[in-house]
Each structure stands twice: as C-alpha cells, then as structure tokens.
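Exercise: predict the fold of this chain.
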Amino acid sequence: MHSMSPKVTIAAAPKPSAAPRASRASSSPITLSIDIGGSGIKAMLLNPRGKPISTRERIETPAMPTPHAILRELDDLRARLSSFDRVSVGFPGVVKRGTTDSAFNLHPKWAYFPLERELEKRWKKPVRVANDAAVQGYGAIKGRGVELVLTLGTGMGSAIFSDGKLCPGLELGHHPWREKTYEDYLGRRALDKYGKKHWNKRLQEAIEQTAATFNWDHLYLGGGNTKKITFKPGPNVTIVSNEDGILGGVALWQETSPSGK
C-alpha cells in the first residue's frame, strides 16, 4: 500500500464568541443542542442559522453512565436553559434511527436504547440523535469533496462526508489497525498509558493511514485531546473547536439529516 504523508500545518478554528442568554425574541425554531461525551455533557441553544444564543452549560458525565444516569443529567441541563422548539443530540456511539446501537465508552446498557423516543416522551419536543463525530463534522466541514472527521477524546470518534452529505455508520475507532484498533492507540487510555510522545507518533501514522484508505480531501481533528498534539498537521488538516460538537446540531434538521426524518 502506498504511503501518503500530508504536509501538515495546524489551522486552528476560531472559538465562537460568548453568546448572551436566549430570549424568545430570537427567531424560531430554537434548537437545544446537546453533546454527550465520556467526561462531560454540554448543552447550548442555537438559532436557525446554528449560531449560539445562550451560554454553554456543562456537567460532568456520571461515573456510572447508564441511560438512567445520563437522562437525569440531561434533565438538569435542560432546566438551566430557556425554552426551545426542538432538540439535537450528539452521542458517542453508533446511532440508527434514533436508537443507540452501542456506546463502548459509556455503558453496556446503551445497546439498543431508544434515546430519541425517550427524550421526546420526557420533554414533549421533537428530537434527533446522531453520532457525536457526525454532529461535530456538520459544524466544521466545508461541504466539498471527501471530508473525514476524527474526534480524540475518551475514545476516538469518526465521520465521513461526501460533498457535505454524511455517510452514516463509520465507526473507525474500533476498526482493526496495526496489532489492535485505532482507539487502542489514540484513545485517552493510550495517551495516559504510553505518554504524549508515543500518542503523537501514532496519530501521525493514523493520518497517513486514513489518507491512503479514504483518499480524503480534508481531515478535521476535534475533541479535547487535540490540545495534546505537538506536531504540525498540513494545510489539508484542520484542528477544530470543541464547540463544533454543539454548533452542528442545527444540521440534523436539514434535508441531509442522518436520522432519515
């Protein structure tokens, strides 16, 4: 297999400016956008253009992140924000038609959990749920060519887009690579066990491998562990703000929504 080494300079995305608390004077529909992560759960209100109209609220992910425990925290987050018309949720695992198929970095009880339906029942609002890397991708991509998103956090999330359209179901983190999987080398456990130098070496190799596998035109790196990157990725690699995991929530209500609604 040929080796492709993207020339790499970090193109850091600007962080969105602080937003005021939302008011109903804001144009509708207002979206409550939620990002569920292995270490934290974040929420923010967005206007129809995907711009923040509230402060970002964050709480710690429960130590035992079962569906019941996460839903309890989501109720708390919802109570901190003003009224909204609809809900978008980024979830760290495979999502099919609003049901969480798996969540390797949360809890086994998330297998086949109807998260979308459960939130609609609790909050009496329409809800859409998608993989968290896909939601972050919607907030970051340019919509041209093949664009790959990798999120580096507790685990490793992934999403791939073709001309702005999501190709659902990619779970690259658990795909075999080298002697283990991508997540075994690039997740937080690997970072803690082997150290930042080794983790950066493996990330550079993963960039080359994914370029050779997917022939992407642009790669976006997101997630909390991007701050650990010590090398310079190239002009076709962008480190994106962690806020994109929330700001992409409005895209789930567009025609390209992966929920199929």
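Check your answer against the key: The first strand starts at residue 31 and ends at 36.
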